[in-house]
């Protein structure tokens, strides 16, 4: 009975303090593609992505009912940093659905304008970056004024939004008056107050109505009410906590055999920290464990692994947590849910060739190449067993070769020729059987005619940890990449094009792994097939270094037509600063360098979100997205033919 009454009480109390208009709710996913195009068109940073914001706390003044309900402590606030613009997962602030949608577009335009202001300030020599908003109060006013002066169409939109926001804030403050100030002032109207909190709130309302009218926010003891029309500073980065080295044997784990369809996905990117849970004597509880009716950011208990299946609850728990605490004890049954927090898998090292190659890296903040910023280690599998082409691969290869033959690209054998590279026994026997022989027509040779394509192709395959993900019940991404390399190498051999195969992954800047599957001087053989068959998911994706080394190798080849074909499943990233914008900018610079060497870099990806960042990296016509990953082995040769059709 107590539980029933509690549910009724909670439902009633929540309804009393709720301010969202759920019938007019607009979800971020409904307008995400439009917002991305709009953000780019308004001058936003091309390297940024649009993502969902997580809730953040504001210490605002609340009504008594809100305090009882425990509501209005966390809000979905829009913010941006160097790698992305974060917008609320939904907006239900207004009763009009059109206004809620308009708010998404206003916030996107404002973020783009803040980007332009930051770039202009950098050009003027001011110390500022996108990651730090130096003056939240004035920066938003300045950007708002710039938008309203430059774009007449936004004036009416902003006027409507500002009018509704001011109306809602006025009603909120009137209801909030009893909780402001000293007891003797509680009967005063909020707008007649002279304390710092009231002055700050009135200042915000003034600048919403007239942007640029106040330069300084009055000091107050609490945060001002959330301003839905503005972009907030980024959430402060969490300390790194306990360092975690994925190459440390103590941190290795067996790979759980989960399929991608079994793992729930949380859209918000979570902050994370490693915690030191190496001590084995911290498991003592001095109270009953069943008294714990909630969870917090970290419960660092030393306890036995349970066989109970709590998958139904773990997603809700993870969504509610602001910070995910990661254990160094990598037990297999911990892999129950997918975050945007990848940890490297265990991989057996191949033979290292040499001491490593020092390569530069592009620092977009300094706008220059930093020499010797990373070390690339060339590797080769030295214990490979020769592998003949299986019947499955043979059938798939025959289908591709049939397409090549239809296009007239495969070598053709012409019989009964006056000269050639092989003897035509059938023609000789036919002539020998004739009672009357014509010595002037002795055409006893087979001439194999090949099309001189003069193409050199280097295929660079992403072998990062993310390729361990399943695309269906039977195949992982790495399996599809392996099949593609098997079939594609057979097709290129039949075409007669010179080609090389490499794979890469990385663990920070000092360990970029560059795997040789076949270089240009190696013949395509069973040993090459054996190396392809051995590829497994590695670590992370420091793409810029791999592209630079591939470009160097390809540029040394003779001939005119040189294609650098990159096969990947996502964005460049690594454990260190090579994440978000830094990784994108370095990769883009590496591609620019490849083009300056006369190469044709082209990306083939199975990432359905590739449209968000690939145009910035490779250009509008420099990439292809394969939506159905299982079709990659069949699609890849066709893409290659389109790239080299004129050669």
UniProtKB/TrEMBL annotation:
> Spans of biased composition, class Basic and acidic residues?
259-270
Q: Which InterPro entries match?
A: NorD/CobT (IPR051928), VWF_A (IPR002035), vWFA_dom_sf (IPR036465)
Q: Where are the transmembrane segments?
A: none
List, for all copies, the residue spans of the domain called VWFA: 456-639
Q: Where is this region: Disordered?
A: 242-270
Family annotation (PANTHER family)? NORD PROTEIN (PTHR41248)
> In its UniProt entry, what is this protein called?
von Willebrand factor, type A
């Amino acid at each position: 009975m107590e539980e029933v009454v509690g549910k009724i009480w909670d439902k009633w109390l929540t309804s009393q303090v709720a301010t969202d208009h759920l019938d007019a709710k607009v979800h971020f996913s409904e307008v995400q593609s439009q917002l991305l195009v709009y953000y780019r068109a308004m001058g936003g940073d091309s390297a940024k992505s649009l993502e969902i914001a997580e809730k953040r706390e504001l210490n605002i003044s609340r009504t008594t009912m809100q305090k009882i309900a425990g509501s209005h402590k966390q809000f979905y606030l829009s913010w941006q940093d160097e790698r992305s613009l974060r917008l609320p997962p939904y907006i239900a602030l207004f009763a009009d659905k059109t206004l809620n949608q308009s708010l998404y577009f206003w916030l996107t335009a404002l973020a783009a304008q803040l980007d332009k202001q930051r770039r202009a300030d950098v050009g003027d020599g001011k110390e500022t970056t996108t990651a730090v908003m130096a003056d939240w109060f004035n920066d938003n006013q300045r950007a708002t004024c710039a938008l309203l002066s430059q774009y007449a169409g936004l004036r009416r939109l902003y006027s409507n939004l500002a009018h509704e926001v001011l109306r809602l804030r006025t009603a909120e403050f009137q209801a909030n008056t009893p909780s402001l100030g000293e007891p003797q002032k509680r009967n005063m109207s909020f707008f007649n107050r002279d304390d710092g909190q009231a002055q700050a709130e009135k200042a915000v309302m003034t600048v919403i109505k007239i942007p640029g009218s106040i330069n300084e926010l009055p000091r107050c003891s609490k945060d001002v009410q959330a301003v839905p029309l503005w972009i907030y500073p980024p959430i402060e980065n969490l300390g790194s906590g306990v360092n975690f080295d994925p190459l440390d044997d103590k941190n290795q784990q067996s790979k759980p055999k989960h399929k991608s369809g079994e793992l729930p996905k949380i859209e918000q990117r979570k902050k994370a920290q490693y915690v030191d849970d190496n001590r084995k004597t911290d498991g003592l509880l001095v109270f009953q464990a069943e008294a714990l009716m909630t969870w917090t950011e970290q419960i660092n208990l030393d306890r036995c692994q349970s066989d109970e299946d709590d998958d139904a609850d773990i997603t809700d728990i993870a969504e509610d947590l602001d910070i995910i605490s990661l254990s160094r004890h990598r037990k297999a049954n911990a892999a129950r849910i997918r975050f945007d927090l990848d940890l490297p898998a265990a991989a057996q090292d191949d033979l290292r060739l040499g001491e490593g190659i020092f390569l530069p890296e592009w620092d977009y903040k300094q706008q220059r190449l930093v020499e010797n910023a990373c070390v690339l280690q060339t590797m080769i599998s030295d214990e490979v067993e020769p592998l003949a082409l299986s019947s499955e691969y043979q059938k798939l290869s025959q289908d591709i070769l049939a397409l090549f033959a239809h296009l007239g690209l495969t070598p053709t054998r012409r019989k009964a020729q006056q000269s050639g590279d092989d003897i035509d026994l059938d023609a000789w026997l036919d002539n020998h059987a004739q009672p009357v022989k014509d010595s002037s027509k002795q055409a006893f040779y087979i001439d194999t005619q090949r099309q001189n394509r003069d193409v050199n192709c280097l295929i660079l395959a992403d072998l990062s940890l993310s390729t361990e993900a399943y695309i269906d019940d039977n195949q992982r991404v790495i399996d599809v990449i392996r099949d593609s390399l098997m079939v594609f190498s057979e097709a290129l051999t039949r075409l007669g094009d010179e080609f090389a195969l490499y794979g890469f992954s990385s663990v920070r800047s000092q360990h970029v792994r560059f795997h040789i599957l076949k270089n240009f001087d190696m013949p395509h053989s069973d040993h090459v097939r054996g190396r392809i068959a051995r590829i497994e998911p590695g670590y992370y994706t420091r793409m810029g270094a791999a592209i630079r080394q591939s470009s160097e190798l390809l540029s040394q080849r003779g001939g005119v037509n040189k294609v650098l074909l990159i096969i990947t499943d996502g964005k460049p990233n690594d454990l260190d600063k090579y994440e978000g914008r830094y990784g994108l900018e370095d990769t883009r610079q590496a591609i620019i360098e490849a083009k300056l060497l006369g190469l044709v870099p082209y990306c083939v990806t199975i990432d359905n979100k590739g449209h968000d960042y690939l145009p910035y990296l490779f250009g509008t016509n420099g990439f292809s997205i394969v939506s159905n990953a299982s079709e990659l082995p069949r699609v890849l040769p066709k893409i290659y033919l389109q790239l080299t059709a004129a050669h």
